[in-house]
Amino acid sequence: xxxxxxxNMLGREMGMPGGYALVFDLAAxxxxxxxxxxxxxxxxxxxxxDQEGR
Length: 54
Hints:
Blueprint: H1 2-14, H2 18-52
Keywords: Membrane, Transmembrane, Transmembrane helix
Transmembrane segments: 20-43
């Protein structure tokens, strides 16, 4: 999130077109979705281990 914010500020300061902001936003959304998927997989694995009695 900090990197996304920094890239948006840098782009604004350098006068980059809005298309770059869109690319940064899409990359941030992709990273959040990936992180959510990883957390969900870890949560499911933990539940499986609890059910097995480990």
